[in-house]
Design goal:
alpha+beta, about 625 residues, disordered C terminus, elongated, 14 helices, about 45% helix
């Protein structure tokens, strides 16, 4: 029996989780050390003490998070090393006001037992992997004590624990049953991992980890790294010198000679070594005659200018060897250099990640082609992969139909308005994230400007810097992937000639997203599927099915075929009753890559069992 931890995908996910917890611990340690060092070696004004307290507080919180992640790592190792993965129907229960994320699994030999479990994970990490409607999740552990939950393939691991309290369990089970979990069919068998099964050795994830470490070292030793390091040194030096400038000693000067315009030669005693020094100076010609042989000035106490003399005229103008302007230029140069280094490093990282993704996609495509056989999908004939007919899929869609609580929220038609007025496109492109972070930056900036005198501005500026970073990331994502994808979708949705097809609305058991199984428009119950079109769930997280067709079967208009994906599959948008159903993947026709695997997962359990028996 293959233990869960011995599967390559699980081993890699466990190693990635361990590395992530280590990075969190290291980040918390750096923040804490920076705050302690700032308070111990760089005391100063009140705002500096507040900054120290914030750094230490945030650092300790991050360290606590890292310690918790390490504890989860040990639990993962123990449970995955002693159990096996089992597949279960699953329904995610959104959190309430006083409750956390929850999931209900259909357990037992016939799927009749319902296991309500709490998910111990942050929402932003759980949401992309949580089960959709009709989805399947992998489970390893004891539902009465806790265990590990993962999407099919074991690519992301989540610790879960049983829901405490009989009333809470009944409430969560009732919410899950209302979404269609009660009496589910037996889930399909777990698919083999891309590498074909268990790893050949316990540390099979190490080669990939070594490759990632090599890639990080190459990034860290690049030219951008040194530019950022030099810029950071320049900024730190300028800040330190500017702080030391406040400690420049003021000394008495003896005037040796003086001209009528104020030019003079003065002599003074060096405040550090006690030696006599003299240099040209600019005396105040309007000072009292009683002070004719005396003047006052400042001595630089830092940097290569240490010991140089400077002063101020009566109207506040500097003269002498004051290096304030030079220090300001050094700091400005450091900021500009750091910005160039960060942007250049980010672009370089993005370029390398795109190249790496392209290489991996090409390798996967070659592997799929090698294993496909002459018919293009694992040597299995088309009749076997798509043996179920329209009547069978229609009945299965009726069983999976989501509850309807009312008409969906209206949405603008992209054929009549610009794309940024379409709520779904604005959300999926990332424009909404830019709006939210931009509004937050504007609000925090106004708050910093109108803050009363004497109020602490460290928290405001801290959150302002963090939010500004999120805004930069959101804008980058919008420009990098959001806008190009939206342009292709709009181009497909507004294509001139529609094609009408019958559909059966099903849900992918491995990912939970809706899928249109398409059939010829003029046909009968014996028609077999000719294509599939995975969709993006249009509704909010608590009602993801909102906006999908109300009927489990019907007809849709297909528009597109103007652009194609990298594998040659066309990009198609379905329209139903004047509402666009945006695709999550390209249009997969019979015989194309990915069609057989998806249609086999979507087939009703009885038909799938018949396929396996045949």
């Amino acid at each position: 029996m293959t233990r869960a931890r011995e599967l390559r995908g699980t081993a890699e996910a466990l190693e990635a989780y361990r590395r992530g917890s280590g990075r969190v611990l290291a980040g918390g340690g750096v923040l804490t050390a920076l705050g302690v060092g700032l308070g111990a070696f760089w005391p100063g004004p009140e705002w500096r003490g507040q900054l120290t307290a914030w750094l230490v507080g945030i650092g300790l919180a991050v360290i606590g998070t890292g310690i918790g992640a390490r504890a989860h790592t040990r639990r993962f190792r123990r449970v995955l090393g002693s159990g096996v993965w089992t597949a279960h129907r699953a329904v995610a229960v959104p959190p309430g006001v006083w409750s956390a994320e929850a999931v209900v699994l259909a357990g037992g030999p016939d799927g009749e037992e319902l296991w309500p479990l709490r998910v111990v994970a942050l929402r932003h990490r759980w949401a992309p992997h949580g089960p959709g409607r009709g989805a399947v999740m992998w489970w390893c552990g004891d539902p009465g004590a806790g265990g590990v939950l993962a999407p099919p393939g074991g690519g992301a691991l989540f610790w879960t624990k049983p829901v405490r309290g009989a009333a809470a369990r009944r409430r969560i089970v009732a919410r899950a049953s209302a979404q269609g979990l009660a009496g589910p069919p037996v889930p399909p068998p777990m698919p083999p991992l891309p590498d074909g099964g268990p790893s050949a050795e316990p540390d099979a994830a190490k080669p990939d980890a070594a490759g990632r470490r090599k890639e990080r070292r190459r990034l860290l030793t690049g030219r951008w790294r040194w530019l950022v390091v030099v810029a950071a040194v320049m900024v730190a030096t300028a800040v330190a010198w500017d702080d030391r400038r406040e400690a420049d000693p003021q000394i008495d000067l003896t005037v040796v000679s003086e001209e009528a315009d104020g030019s003079c030669v003065v002599r003074w005693k060096d405040p550090w070594d006690g030696s006599e020094r003299s240099s040209p100076y600019r005396c105040d010609p309007e000072r009292d005659p009683l002070l004719a042989g005396w003047e006052s000035g400042f001595v630089v106490s830092y940097g290569p200018w240490k010991g140089e003399l400077y002063g101020y005229t009566g109207d506040g103008e500097r003269h002498g060897s004051d290096p304030a302007d030079t220090v300001g230029l050094i700091g400005l140069g450091g900021l500009l250099g750091g910005a160039v280094g960060i942007v250049g490093g980010g672009v370089s990282l993005w370029t390398r990640s795109r190249r790496r993704a392209a290489r991996e996609a090409a390798r996967d495509l070659r592997g799929a082609s090698a294993a496909a056989g002459p018919l293009g999908f694992g040597g299995a004939p088309t009749e076997q992969a798509g043996r179920a007919r329209f009547a069978v899929y229609a009945a299965h869609a009726e069983r999976q139909a989501a509850p309807r609580t009312g008409p969906p929220r209206p949405e603008a038609d992209v054929r009549e308005v610009p794309w940024w007025r379409v709520r779904s496109l604005r959300r999926w492109s990332g424009a909404r994230d830019v709006e939210l972070t931009g509004g937050s930056v504007l609000g925090l900036g106004l708050l910093a400007l109108v803050a009363p005198a004497g109020a602490s501005s460290v928290p405001t500026y801290t959150f302002l810097v963090i939010t500004a970073g999120l805004l930069v990331r959101s804008v980058f994502r919008l420009l990098d992937s959001g806008l190009p994808s939206v342009r292709l979708l709009v181009r497909a949705a507004t294509a001139p000639v529609p094609v009408v097809r019958r559909y059966a609305l099903l849900y992918d058991p491995y990912e939970g997203r809706p899928v249109l199984v398409l059939f010829p428009d003029h046909g009968g119950d014996d028609d077999r599927p000719e294509a599939v079109l995975p969709l993006v769930s249009p509704g909010p997280s608590k009602r993801p099915w909102e906006g999908l067709p109300a009927g489990p079967t019907g007809t849709v208009e297909l528009r597109g075929w103007l652009d194609r994906a990298d594998d040659g599959a066309p990009l198609v948008v379905a329209w139903h009753e004047g509402r666009a159903l945006w695709p999550a993947e390209p249009y997969r026709e019979t015989g194309s890559a990915g069609f057989a695997a998806l249609i086999d997962r979507l087939a009703p359990p009885a038909e799938r069992q018949g396929t396996e028996d045949s």
